[in-house]
Amino acid sequence: MFYINIIDEKDGSFELIDGDLLYLYPDLAQDNLIALSNEMYQAFCAQDNGKTKWIGDKFVFEETVVDLTALLEQQREEVRSKINEFRDLKNRSGVYVEALGKWFDNDDMAYQNLLGFKASLDLIGDYKTAWICADNSVISDFDKAKLTAVITQIMQDKTANVQNALRHKMALAHLDDPANYDYSDGWTRTYDDYLAEQTNG
């Protein structure tokens, strides 16, 4: 059995004492203790948050105050981070250059290769080379015009995805349920999307 020892009747403060440990309180008069029923003890265990008071002859449980403003901002920040991650994923998952009818890699390494070819063109003038596309097909006459088309498409898609991410984050700022916000629309179609479409029929 558990007991309540009232510390201050005015503010309802108390201590909970296990009956098996009463011997540790030799100076405590048992007449001043309040025996708890099992039901009362179980209610205390289930609802106590460290702010419980004993008022009159019962527990008074204080609800934990949740800072909803802080909680919403935390959820928004978490979703903003996911939007940024999704934006970055889209910007490295391949672009389609309609004029060439081909998909091209656009991750960091691929972009550096494109810039490397541009540097060669700037140094020695226009020439043709073989270029491997995202699907491992080869363009045998890849030159300055085709390079320009690819880089232009990469930059257009990147700009579109940055703007779309900003749109989603602006919409997110006005929601009361940011954790469930769907930010899946408005992104550029990538090579990864194309492969998924082919797999799903």
SSE topology sketch:
Blueprint: E1 2-8, E2 13-18, E3 33-35, H1 38-47, E4 53-55, E5 58-60, H2 68-90, E6 95-97, E7 102-104, H3 108-124, E8 129-132, E9 138-142, H4 144-172, H5 191-199
Antiparallel strand pairs: 1-2, 1-3, 4-5, 6-7, 8-9
Helix pairs in contact: 2-4
Features:
201 residues, alpha+beta, 2 domains, 3-stranded antiparallel sheet, two-stranded antiparallel ribbon
Characterize the largest beta sheet: strand count, sense, and whether it forms a barrel.
3 strands, antiparallel
The residue ranges in which pLDDT falls below 50 over 5 or more consecutive positions are none
Q: What count of domains describes the coordinates? A: 2
Mean pLDDT over the residues: 91
Give the topology string: H per helix, E per strand: EEEHEEHEEHEEHH
| Radius of gyration, in angstroms, nearest whole number | 33 Å
- Distance from first to last alpha carbon: 67 Å
User: Which overall shape is indicated by the principal axes computed on the Cα atoms?
Assistant: rod-shaped
Helix tally equals: 5
Taken as a percent bin, the fraction of beta residues is: 15-25%
Name the structural class.
alpha+beta
InterPro entries: DUF4376
Pfam family, one: DUF4376
Domain DUF4376: 74-184
Keywords: Coiled coil
